[in-house]
Amino acid sequence: MLVSLRPYALRCDHRATPLGIDEAAPLLSWRLASAHRGDAPLAYRVRVADRAEDLDEGGQPLWDTGRIEDPDAIGAVYAGPALKSRTRYHWRVAVWPAERTDPTGPTAEGGSAAAVEATSWFETAFRGADEWRASWIGHDPRPIPVMDAPTEGERALDDHGLAPCPTLRRAFTGPAALRARLYVSARGLYEVRLNGTRVGDAELAPGWTDYTRRVQYQTYDVTELVRDGENVLAATIADGWWSGFVGFEPRRAGAHYGAFPQFLAELHIDHADGRTTTIVTDDTWRTHTGEIRHADLLMGECHDLRHAADGWDLPGFDDTDWSPALITDTGHRLLVASVDEPVRATTALRPRSITRVPHGNGGVTADGGHDTHIVDFGQNLAGRVRLRVAGLAPGARVVVRHAEALDETGRLYTANLRTAAATDVLIGDGREHLVFEPRFTYHGFRFVEISGVPRLYDSDVVAVALHSDTPWSGAFDCSDPEIRRLHDCVVWGQRSNFVSVPTDCPQRDERLGWLADAQVFLPTAALNADVAAFFTKWLRDIEDARTPEGGFTNVAPRLIGVADEGAPGWGDAGVIIPWHLYRTYDDPRFLSRALPAMRAWIGLIHRHNPDLIWRRHVGPHFSDWLAPGVPTPREVIATAYFAHSTRLTASAAEVLGLPEVAREYHRLAADIRTAFSERFVTTDKNAEGDPTVRIAGDTQTGYLVALAFGLLPEDATGPAAQRLAELIEKAGPALQTGFLGVALAAPVLDAYGRADLAHALLRRTDVPSWLFPLRHGATTIWERWDGWTPGTGFRAPSMNSFNHYALGSIGEWLYRGVAGLDQSPDSTGYRKLLIRPRPGELGHASAGYESARGTVTVRWERHDQTLGLRVQVPPGASAEVHVPTDDHGSVRESGAVPVDGEHLTLLATIPATDTASGHSVYRVGSGVYRFTASYPSRPTYPSRPTGGYPTAPVASAGPRRAPSPAASLAGSHEEDTP
Ligand code: BGC
């Protein structure tokens, strides 16, 4: 029998086949696909077993939910017998389709369709810290020799006081493995090798946490790498976030968490004869230092090949002159299995142009005479360069410096990196055919300056992008090339800044997990990618960072030197993020884990602000950060966030089945709303007798927070929205909002019938606007609307990042508004879709999204006077589809007049207003629907020049002259117009 409904994309705690979990009750989830209209699940059954065959009929699974009727279910939390350590578990989901009445689809025999199954697995690591046997080991830092003094003629090499990276090795003999697992961590960063082969592809592992609270470890399957006879397990470790430079406290290298890097590993080998071998880090390991003379996330990395010990990671190497490893301690209490995707090198970009700067032209020549080269990769990114060098004389250097932009002389503009040296160095030993790629650092850059190589060809160098490898889940497209590029910029901002934690920027000496930046960007991020696992990890960082009084902080992981006490909109991320993740992924554990901290946060603000106006304990009150124009009164923003967080806390309690708690917070939220109105809202009537509303300060952000967070009495919302629109129109139309206000602007305007104004903001090309930076060469979102302007050049370098995702929060509205792919306010996990395109003056737009439930797609296009809208709704979901039209009678679905039936019902017809077209609103079930309707003709977008932006990395034909600074930001208009 043909069955079309099927489960796919099986996940364990939001990851596909995770190796090495330590969660006692993981969520086993699936998505649903079907080719047929109206397909929906009726029931599911999950079985878990430690032998695959026990999943089959007649087997003995450890856990079997039995058949559970729940048409909404897309996952089940494991509730079987306690999971054992270091065990692979197989699991299977069976989904029964609801009976189908659609004659076009296959029907089940005998009226009840058979279940369709899918199978996956997960594997546990150590279930308890007491199971670890390994000791933390390192290279005794005292005898590490300092860097050799530079020789005559060489530019002094700044090692920033950093020590060489220790190498560690342990030889052992044994038979080959039936199964081998390596459990590994570092205080610092590690790269492990087994018999000369690199283990895994994780970069910057074990990732950044507050190491005083939690240290992550990773698990690798190394079965294939263990061989018969002598084996060598080897590692290089580096300072990383543990003992390197972190954030903007340059004096604090080595002072945040620890003084020198340490390593921890257990290799468990099961042999065919039933014996096991366990190799753990202890004082039988040997240590030395190798060619990596220093490696630091901010400063960069130096490889001196004169210190390379070939074969050090292979059997047979003589390590007698190495020292025994230093055992630092045997603490395992803080160890946790990592729960997110590792950072990986995912993309390599070829140069877009290479410009040769002749020696003697003021160029820095690190090798006593060669020209330097400026490479433009055409894309701002986070990562590093992989460089092929033909050969280097002993002591000769290649220096790679990084920057986001060029200055007016065509040289690297590095002032905005502040103290981040972002310089990588390779020192030769006479060898030929070298490939240089740093391993324990990353930089935010588009340009690099390479000195020390006589010639540089396109094929010699690539930029390697690094980021947490969250699976991409969304796609957006539209007819306006600049808006398409804006979406690309937003995605690249995400790619560059999700690096173990969501950072503000990847280039300067900061790169911190700022809570507000992540809060405003999350709705966009969660459409672009599946960030469930990434944020599961970061929510733990937020939890770890909490102040002794229970407050959320401004950055997580918490860092010495950064004001702790959470500011309004920053600390509130501790409430807002779990709520949004719950809604996106339909996983209430985001709420149950966070609820105590949410309550503590609200309690703290309430305690210090009994009159419900939040003005005390506001931390550093960043207000509406970087808003141009008149500042919004701080109390307005703070109190609005207080109300919003309180209401979300109430909703979380409701979801978790705690009605008493919910009531308490709903009551408080209502009181805060009243206090907000009494204190900040004035109502009046204008000359025509229409009601007017003013919010203290009369700023755009004031109205935005009040409307977005539902703080106004019903009859005040219309006039408030009108005032907001007036303010925006008066300003340009333009925004005068900062990080907090920007995120709310388009959604609020849209919600109050002014999608036209949201479109106008989107189309704007002067400062402040999203397209201004694009017109001036941006390939990622800038921290400031005016980070560089033709008149004044660069803004003050003390805070001017060209890769900051916060203002990229508009990405959400591209999906939800422009394309129209959204879920209803009361929906979770995209169970109830809201498809409501806002065409504006665009010719077409489309969005695809891999939701927690399955694939959702929306595509609309306009031809002449007709709009076509194609919608794909996953099984078990329904959608409210708003077909934009002023003529309800013109609507067709799949070519026919829609008739209310099982899969489609007309809900409403909404008349046009003077700012928006009308809508015919239908409820549809799962499947694909193709609507057409007449649509009022509006001017289409004027076609715009694309400004020489590289749509794909282009290899340049050869060396070029240095582009002008404007061109460096503007994408070298005159040089590279395609
Ligand atoms: C960061 C921001 C952050 C802010 C706090 C800046 O230095 O780059 O993105 O949110 O500080 O106001």
From TrEMBL:
Domain Alpha-L-rhamnosidase six-hairpin glycosidase, chain residue ranges per copy: 474-818
* Residue ranges annotated for the Bacterial alpha-L-rhamnosidase N-terminal domain, each copy included: 179-346
Taxonomic path: Bacteria, Bacillati, Actinomycetota, Actinomycetes, Kitasatosporales
Give the transmembrane region(s). Answer: none
What top-tier enzyme class does this entry carry? hydrolase
Alpha-L-rhamnosidase C-terminal domain location: 825-894
Name listed for the protein in its UniProt record = alpha-L-rhamnosidase
- Keywords in alphabetical order, please: Hydrolase
Tell me which EC number(s) this protein carries. 3.2.1.40
Region: Disordered; residue ranges are: 935-978
Q: Where is the composition biased (Low complexity)?
A: 935-971
| GO molecular function terms attached to this record | alpha-L-rhamnosidase activity
- What's the superkingdom here? Bacteria
Q: Which InterPro entries match?
A: 6-hairpin_glycosidase_sf (IPR008928), 6hp_glycosidase-like_sf (IPR012341), Alpha_rhamnosid (IPR016007), Bac_rhamnosid6H (IPR035396), Bac_rhamnosid_C (IPR035398), Bac_rhamnosid_N (IPR013737), Ig-like_fold (IPR013783), Rhamnosid_concanavalin (IPR008902)
Example of a GO biological process term: carbohydrate metabolic process
Q: Which residues form the Alpha-L-rhamnosidase concanavalin-like domain?
A: 370-466
* UniProt catalytic activity: Hydrolysis of terminal non-reducing alpha-L-rhamnose residues in alpha-L-rhamnosides
